[in-house]
Write a structure and sequence with these properties.
single chain, 389 residues, alpha/beta, TIM Barrel, eight-stranded parallel beta sheet, two-stranded antiparallel ribbon, 13% strand, globular
Length: 389
């Protein structure tokens, strides 16, 4: 299999598995505990069917939407994710470049492998920074100030990582950042010489936005789960979140909202968006899926705040279903990380091209000339969703 023959997320996944050492691939691919929530994040869409309309005159359609004050060309964007230069040496630069080509949002993580300033100088499309609330308030505040100076458009405060999830695949493979050779992993790294040579001889791996404050993750190897559990501030509460919003002063998103009560609190503290997300199933296994929770959250706050469905997206029809429920847009991580690992920026561009074609085709088959034409009349649930609380 090569890039030309990758037409869907699962094909990119298989190519990524060939290109990456085992511990790196399983870090992308894995989730918490029994990975029930990981699987349900996608299968939840199967419980809902699309009801198309016809004879709607769909020669020309408009896939654009406005999220956090920015008009984007398609209702899908690339969620911020950590450690991207572990997956391909182009890392965040590749993802940013692809997002710019397709006119959509993308984000970098506090645990990014490129600097805030580098992305700010290089990319003109809408930019989000995923903020982890550290015990070291000097670090947290410095990242907010650097985002201001680099003219980022939004900050997404991640609120579902008070402790790290039990990511058992990482325990089995010994995955750490930076990678640490173990008896289990040495043969896997040796069996992937292209990846190993790129890692050893291209730009030094680092967590660019943390390195001046902490050694963990750059000079001291540790798992991401351990990083969350030891470095992030478990006392973070709604008052702290509101203070971050005030310090930032621009578009402010809470990433990891799953309940109606929390969605309402997000509105109360002045957030302009929420990402309905369970962190890709990597935190609390057995939790509800974003799509399952979407209707009641949209009913409660959808007229007051931008609601984004984050996680489990593998097809354009998944995007259409979430938009029909009332999401302003969808986002995801694995959907582009597999593609990044498979082929760098060319891979991310190919997966975005696939999604754009699927969304456009699906909208035409649904009889929808614009995103606004999609609504709940287009949906039927096999099991009725829980009503709004």
């Amino acid at each position: 299999m090569n890039l030309k023959h990758c037409f869907n997320t699962q094909q990119f996944r298989r190519l990524a598995k060939k290109r990456l050492p085992g511990p790196i691939f399983h870090y992308i691919d894995g989730a918490a505990d029994d990975e029930v929530t990981l699987r349900r994040n996608t299968s939840a869409f199967d419980d809902c069917d699309l009801v198309p309309n016809v004879l709607a005159g769909v020669e020309n359609i408009d896939m654009s939407t406005t999220v956090m004050g920015k008009k984007i060309d398609l209702p899908l964007f690339l969620s911020p994710t950590a450690l991207q230069r572990l997956f391909h040496y182009e890392g965040e630069y590749a993802v940013a470049g692809a997002a710019e080509q397709f006119g959509t949002w993308f984000g970098i993580s506090s645990l990014a492998t490129v600097g805030i300033e580098d992305i700010g100088a290089r990319i003109s499309s809408p930019k989000m920074f995923q903020l982890y609330y550290h015990k070291d308030k000097g670090l947290t505040n410095s990242m907010i100030e650097r985002c201001k100076e680099a003219d980022f458009d939004a900050i997404a405060l991640t609120v579902d990582t008070i402790v790290g999830g039990n990511r058992e695949r990482d325990l089995v493979t010994g995955f750490t950042s930076p990678p640490r050779l173990t008896a289990r992993s040495v043969f896997s790294f040796a069996a992937h010489p292209r990846w190993t040579m790129n890692y050893l001889f291209r730009d030094k791996f680092e967590l660019s936005n943390l390195k001046d404050y902490v050694d963990e993750g750059t000079n001291v190897s540790m798992s991401v789960s351990d990083y969350f559990s030891t470095m992030l501030d478990q006392s973070m509460d709604w008052t702290a979140a509101e203070q971050v919003r005030k310090n930032w002063g621009k578009e402010f998103c809470l990433k990891g909202i799953m309940s109606v009560a929390d969605a309402r609190r997000a509105v109360d503290i002045g957030a302009t968006a929420i990402m309905v997300s369970n962190h890709g199933g990597r935190q609390l296994d057995g939790s509800r899926t974003p799509f399952d929770q979407l209707a009641e959250i949209v009913d409660a706050v959808g007229d007051k705040i931008d609601v984004i469905c984050d996680g489990g997206i593998q097809r354009g029809t998944h995007v259409l279903k979430a938009l029909s429920v009332g999401a302003k847009a969808c986002s995801g991580g694995r959907l582009y990380l597999y593609a990044l690992a498979a082929a760098g920026q060319a891979g991310v561009e190919k997966t975005l091209s696939n999604f754009r074609a699927e969304i456009e085709r699906g909208m035409k088959l649904m009889g929808a000339r614009s995103v606004a034409d999609l609504g709940r009349d287009n949906l039927r649930y096999r099991v009725p969703p829980t009503g709004a609380a």
